[in-house]
Amino acid sequence: MDQRSKLNIAVCDDDIFVTEQLSEWIKEYFVFNHLEEPNIYEFDNGEDLIKSEVKYDFVFLDIVIPGMNGINIGRRLLAQNEECLIYIITAYDSYLDAAMSLRVFRYISKPLDKSRIYRNIQDGLKIYTTSNTKILIETKNENIILRAPEIIYLEAQGHTLFVNTSEGKYISVRKMDYWEKTLDTRGFFRTHRSFIVNMEHVVRFDHSLVYLDTGVAAYLTKRNYQNFKHAFMMYLEGART
């Protein structure tokens, strides 16, 4: 997600009442919380949503709509912008597994509940804020500024601390304790005195290792296993389900 003051939010449902109700609640949430109102775009079919050239931050998407179904629309949207948060809205629980396989941000059942919509907008804004937070990596020769999600893991080797990112590897002048405090609320976990991992990149773990999608295996201490398991489950529940 880029640095825009206004969010772009799409609402796509073939039921005009649902579309208008959702749009109204979204506006109300931002006004009530003294936040800048987002740009809201309404659609009654997936084809028009896909064809629009707007980069959406949040998309509220019905599964059963004319033409392309919501799951396929969601896949297309994520292919265009992997940081888009997809809210699947439907009255059919049978689509839950398909929605989960898409790794949507939230699955919201009909009939819609205003308080639940508010909670889910709030959760989405937390993810949006975290994704846009800038992190300063200080090295001996330069200062690098990245977004928190671009950090994959940190590893201490002796007195040297490596910050491994999607942009490359950097040697930080800061110590592990500093990074643990800095990244504490941003989806990171200190699995071992030598490792901090970004939970977005975790693919599996056992009682001694945490495996990342980069092929790296980070140490996991026995005393941290239950805490990490709990933190990871909470991360999945709060960030991707």
UniProtKB/TrEMBL annotation:
Residues 8-125 form the Response regulatory domain. It comes from the Bacteria. The modification 4-aspartylphosphate is found at D62. Residues 135-234 form the HTH LytTR-type domain. SMART domains: LytTR (SM00850), REC (SM00448). GO terms for molecular function: DNA binding; phosphorelay response regulator activity. The keyword Phosphoprotein applies. Keywords: DNA-binding, Phosphoprotein. The keyword Manganese does not apply. PANTHER family: STAGE 0 SPORULATION PROTEIN A HOMOLOG, TRANSCRIPTIONAL REGULATOR-RELATED. May play the central regulatory role in sporulation. It may be an element of the effector pathway responsible for the activation of sporulation genes in response to nutritional stress. Spo0A may act in concert with spo0H (a sigma factor) to control the expression of some genes that are critical to the sporulation process. This is Stage 0 sporulation protein A homolog. It comes from Coprococcus eutactus.
